[in-house]
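Moderator note: this is an archived Q&A kept for reference. The question asked for a predicted structure of one protein chain; the sequence and the answer are reproduced below.
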Amino acid sequence: MNIVIAGLGIIGGSIAKALKKYTDHRLIGINRSRAPIDKALECGAIDQAGDREALRTADMLFLGTYPDASVEFVKDNAPYINKSCIVVDTCGIKSDICPRMNALAEEYGFTFVGFHPMAGKEKNGFDASDADLFLGASSIIIPGKAPDEAVNTLANLTRKIGFGRVVFTTPEEHDRMIAFTSQLPHVLACAYVFSPQCPNHKGFSAGSYRDVSRVANINAELWSELFIENKEPLALEIQTLIDNLTEIKSGIEKGDRRELAELLHRAKVIKEELGE
């Protein structure tokens, strides 16, 4: 296939590197700034730099940009997109972006499939991209209105570049689950490092501090957009966390060791039963 990747940050760059390493498709890169294109050409992650004209012969288009930027890119370039092209977003929220992309697909005749690669790092940009970023990760696919052939093409391609599990879901279920598994931990990490004790942690911290604080090294512009576009599911998860923290705090304040031990044991059982 001729595959165009628009946006060569950590996700777009990793997709390019993985496709180059594990497949023999032809890769064309598009990026707003020139530096990532030059780096991608130099390391062989893409075969050539492209522009909107490259979309005319694209069999697949990956959008490696922020949600609103992905929609705007498709809007601006829709007349150039090959009608047989499978357009794939990589955004971390779906209820907002999928309806807009489906509408554009219907208007201009291409196929849209939603995709969320469940992998990443604390660092961003093409320099952080990695051909093996997706090894063993979950590939979440939102088929929407796309034909089975297009959905299967994407699913098989993600398996070839290392994804260990393919999950098919709806935009709504995706966003509910991502609020819990991805967005809430980032909220928690940020709130955690706001503590006035954080600057003094050195010499007193080990694995627990690193585990909880790791994702506070956050891309503020991206995650603030993701949080707001998924505000209802995320706000519900934050409130649930607050309620649970309040219950534990109450047990501590009352000095009720039995009540507190029961709460902590319940958490242990839940974690052990999940097995991961």
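Archived answer notes: Strands lie at 2-6, 26-30, 48-49, 60-63, 86-89, 111-118, 138-142, 165-168.
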